[in-house]
Design goal:
The chain has about 650 residues and is α+β, with helices and mostly antiparallel strands. It has helices at about 20-25, 45-70, 70-75, 100, 105-115, 205-210, 215-245, 245-270, 325-340, 345-350, 380-395, 400-405, 465-470, 545-550, 600-610, 615-625, 635-655; strands spanning about 80-85, 90-95, 125-130, 140-150, 155-165, 195, 200, 275-285, 290-300, 305-310, 355, 415-420, 430-435, 475-480, 500-505, 510-515, 540-545, 565-570, 575-580, 585, 625-630, 630. Helix 7 (about 215-245) packs across helix 8 (about 245-270).
């Protein structure tokens, strides 16, 4: 037996292995269910019923995972992914959770079929994988449990459940290590290993997996939650096969992928051919770095095909990289978000329209053993950003698709804070602040962005309850609130975002803290069609704050200045200590705007001011709207807007940027 080693082609998933190639590798004793040569009768009504049952099954799987988990990242935030594939791993349906967690599971299943079938793949097996070079995981904290589903002794389909784990070892709490130079300083990546056999957890394998975590009991519960979610998927699929017949269900799966392809091609046919470019930037790849690193993309549309060319992307660096499977999953997630609102989320069909060019050793095609601990919200998120921007520029050229598919970017960088120490009960704890789930969404061609609307690539992502965060960790929130002027100005305004301030509570033990987030200098929430970007990200440590005395005086500090102490603006990648008398303040990104802000209805700007979404200063300086009291001064507004336009013309004439 040839054992694949890191860096070999077995670990470097550079493409989706063709179906015929996979079939040729399967052992004779692995019987596979495929469509018969003769056409299976599938009437339209049955197809719709089966198709919607597949969608509902992914939702049920996600609900089962969330309800069985004990981690707030899962229960309150839905940082999970689920998928159903056909017998050879082509994705038939992904669930509406964190899309990029599920969209690379096809590569992981192909890997299992290539490298584990010689040892047997049987009914009752499940495989654990958190190897970003294999798939099913963008970074090591995303752990997939992947299950083959057999019907009448034949491999019929696969299900997968993935969730972010709060800690899987490595040098820093939360497995987030800004000083990492390679993967060996991070959590251990594990290629697919059989963790369930004959429907029973293999305790020896589970013990090896859990040993790496600072929070083994929590991770053990999540392991069982993912196993349970897969059991739900298996039961639902077998119920469908028993009711309608395995051939009919498989025909519906095949048609769903065909429909995804044909509907995407029909949409692309209505768009002029062309090439559109974008770049998404990451500041600081790790401790001590001061560089800006870019994911660069050019999308060329020819007929009904799309070519994604990442030529020019920065070399891999620090901990912000993602391997090829991360790029693969993020790319197709961006396609789903921009083009597939009315198309089945069957990536096995969507990939037939897509070709990719990417150089190994770059930011989103990193080679082993690069550090990839931040992959999901660094190079992976940057890939989604670039894809979304390019596709929005593309659809903005089409009168037919312009209104439904063109939008500015929402929050394009995750503001992360990991805390670990001793909780109020004297037990070790580790937690991740996930409040940035409530980020502002980008504006589109007809509407303002949704205020605190979420992360666009996580349709069912949620902002956690403050009370649950305070219950589960020794923390107290001074505030969590939406911030004025955080949405990008435009004809349609970007959604505003929020900020928070926390203090350690009911513990005198200093906490280890990791702060990680880009977008503090270079905007990741750019506008489109003349719209402005939203706010930049910000993290502040207030050392020696006087919060306790303020409480005793019956006052809750509402600004950094009211806290006393010394304010320290933090960089993008920091490992530090949060002391009992310190405060951590963070503000994440809002959405970008659409269209020239001078074209926004002045009375809408006045409403924004009244609702504290826009300040009077921004209204005057950027929107060109002047108020008299609370009413629009129409004459002064017209004069102010003319003045801004004149200044733009003068700047352009002088060779500057208008």
């Amino acid at each position: 037996m040839v054992v694949p080693v890191p860096g070999s082609e077995a670990f470097a998933s550079r493409r989706i292995t063709p179906r015929d190639e996979i079939r040729a590798l399967l052992p004779a004793d692995l019987r596979v269910h495929e469509l018969p040569a003769e056409e299976v009768h599938l009437d339209p009504l049955t197809y719709e019923v089966v198709r919607h049952r597949l969608w509902a099954t992914t939702e049920r799987m996600g609900q089962a995972l969330s309800r069985m988990s004990g981690s707030l990242v899962v229960t309150d935030c839905n940082d999970i992914g689920v998928a159903i594939t056909d017998e050879l791993g082509d994705i038939v349906q992904i669930g509406p959770f964190a899309l990029s967690l599920a969209t690379s599971v096809d590569l992981a299943i192909r890997w299992i079929l290539k490298h584990r079938s010689a040892q047997g793949i049987r009914d009752g097996d499940m495989f654990l994988c958190n190897d970003p070079w294999v798939g099913g995981a963008t970074h090591q904290n995303d752990v997939a449990i992947i299950q083959p589903v057999f019907h009448d002794g034949k491999l019929f389909a696969w299900t997968a459940a993935i969730a972010h784990q709060v800690d899987l070892g490595g040098a820093s709490p939360g497995s987030w290590t800004p000083r990492a130079h390679d993967v060996f300083m991070e959590s251990l990546p594990t290629p697919p290993v059989r963790i369930v056999r004959d429907f029973e957890i293999q305790d020896d394998v589970a013990d090896v997996y859990l040993r790496r975590s600072r929070m083994p009991k929590l991770v053990a519960l999540d392991l069982r939650a993912k196993i349970g979610a897969n059991r739900v998927g298996r039961e639902r699929l077998l119920e469908l096969a028993d009711r309608y017949g395995a051939d009919v269900v498989k025909a519906a799966m095949a048609r769903q992928m065909d429909d995804a392809e044909s509907k995407l091609r029909a949409k692309l046919e209505r768009i002029p051919d062309g090439t559109w470019s974008a770049a998404s930037h990451q500041e600081q790849s790790g401790t001590g770095d001061r560089g800006v690193h870019s994911v660069r993309l050019a999308i060329t549309k020819t007929g009904t095909d799309l070519h994604f060319d990442f030529t020019g992307t920065s070399p891999q660096s620090g901990m912000i990289n993602c391997p090829y499977p991360g790029m693969h999953g993020s790319l197709i997630a961006g396609v789903i978000l921009n083009l597939c609102g009315d198309i089945p989320w069957a990536t096995g069909g969507l990939w037939r329209c897509i070709r990719v060019t990417s150089q190994p050793g770059t930011l989103n095609n990193a080679e082993f053993p690069s550090a990839v601990g931040k992959a999901s919200v660094a190079a992976g998120m940057a890939t989604i950003n670039a894809v979304e921007e390019c596709l929005s520029l593309m659809t903005d050229t089409s009168d037919e698709l312009h209104h439904d598919h063109t939008s500015a970017k929402g929050c394009g960088a995750w503001d992360l804070c990991v805390l670990a120490g001793m909780d109020q009960y004297g037990f070790p704890f580790a937690t991740m602040l996930t409040d940035a789930m409530g980020a502002g969404l980008g504006a589109d061609a007809t509407h303002d962005g949704v205020d605190s609307g979420g992360i666009v690539s996580m349709p069912m992502g949620r902002m956690p309850d403050v009370e649950m965060m305070e219950f589960s960790a020794p923390l107290l929130y001074l505030w969590r609130r939406e911030e004025t002027d955080s949405g990008g100005p435009g004809l349609y305004r970007g959604g505003v975002t929020a900020s928070l301030a926390i203090v350690p509570h009911d513990t005198e033990v200093p906490m280890a803290q990791v702060v990680s987030g880009s977008g503090k200098t270079v905007a990741q929430n750019t506008g489109i069609a003349g719209g402005y970007p939203g706010n930049s990200q910000c993290d502040i440590a207030v050392r020696g704050a006087d919060v306790r005395n303020a409480f005793q005086a019956g006052r809750i500090p509402a600004t950094v200045e009211e806290m006393g102490g010394t304010a320290e603006v933090l960089g993008c990648e920091e490992e530090l200590i949060l002391g009992p008398g310190d405060v951590h303040v963070m503000c994440w990104q809002g959405g970008g705007g659409y269209g020239d802000p001078l074209l926004r209805d002045a009375y809408k700007v006045a409403e924004d001011i009244a609702e504290l979404m826009v300040s009077p200063e921004t209204a005057r300086d950027i929107y060109g709207v002047v108020l008299e009291g609370t009413d629009v001064d129409e004459a002064a507004t017209a004069a102010r807007r003319a003045e801004i336009k004149d200044r733009r013309r003068m700047t352009a004439a002088a060779g500057g940027r208008a």
